[in-house]
Design brief:
Layout: H1 6-10, E1 14-18, H2 24-33, E2 37-40, H3 43-56, E3 61-64, H4 73-79, E4 82-86, H5 89-102, E5 107-112, H6 128-138, E6 142-148, H7 156-167, E7 174-176, H8 183-188, E8 193-196, H9 198-201
Parallel strand pairs: 1-2, 1-8, 2-3, 3-4, 4-5, 5-6, 6-7
Helix pairs in contact: 4-5
The structure holds pyridoxal-5'-phosphate.
Pyridoxal-5'-phosphate binds at residues 18, 20, 41, 65-66, 149, 179-180, 195-199.
């Protein structure tokens, strides 16, 4: 009997091809090649591009990676499979309500303000425990991991390691971190979902 290294299979890091701003024609070759995970940051753009593709390729998983307004949640539910940007309680409550209406549960990452920057959204590391419990116990959300955007021009290694330390305190294991310019560092720190755009599709306008 063939033996598998289940450790390796379980830890397999996924690449989310971030297709924001790119047209369906530009995305299709990767879809046809068999890539599964794609990311968009705008609800309206995603709804213009993906329903047709997903109908034809039902295995595709679509990830919402951008800032999400509560009034857009109802448009997120039908088309997306993951949300990476849950960053406040009002949004969590709205997702919970919409999920009941649609009878569908998305896989969700809590966005962490890992650099504790005043201008950036995200849950503060010290507040994650209460927020996590609210989401899972009171709102019945399927929280699978945490996500971050490290401070610009920072030592990203430091923040990626902080993320991998933080998640150890919780019964979840997905780490969404790393983009075109720092994905190798993120991978080295245990990222399980890398969000890569320009390195795959080329420069955005
Ligand atoms: C655009 C975007 C990415 C991908 O950025 P690249 O530098 O093109 O790889 C990743 N994460 C988020 C949240 C983004 O908005």
């Amino acid at each position: 009997m063939k033996e598998y290294n289940t450790q390796l299979i379980e830890n397999k890091t996924k690449i989310i091809a971030v297709s924001k701003t790119f047209s369906v024609d530009q995305i299709l070759p990767l879809v046809e090649y068999g890539h599964i995970d794609f990311g968009e940051n705008k609800v309206q753009e995603a709804n213009a591009k993906w329903p047709e593709i997903k109908k034809k390729y039902p295995l595709i998983k679509l990830h919402m990676i951008g800032k999400l307004q509560t009034n857009k949640v109802k448009f997120v539910l039908p088309i997306f499979d993951y949300i990476h940007s849950l960053d406040n309680y009002k949004l969590a409550k709205k997702i919970s309500e919409e999920q009941k209406k649609h009878n569908k549960k998305l896989k969700i990452f809590i966005q962490i303000n890992i650099g504790q920057e005043s201008q950036k959204s995200g849950i503060e590391p010290g507040e994650l425990n209460n927020f996590y419990l609210d989401c899972t116990n009171n709102l019945d959300l399927d929280i699978i991991g945490i996500m971050c955007l490290p401070p610009i021009e920072s030592n990203n290694d430091y923040y990626f390691l902080k993320m991998s330390e933080l998640i150890k305190k919780f019964p979840i294991k997905e780490l969404s971190m790393g983009m075109s310019n720092d994905y190798l560092k993120a991978y080295g720190s245990g990222a399980t979902f890398l969000r890569i755009g320009s390195k795959i599709f080329g420069k955005r306008d």
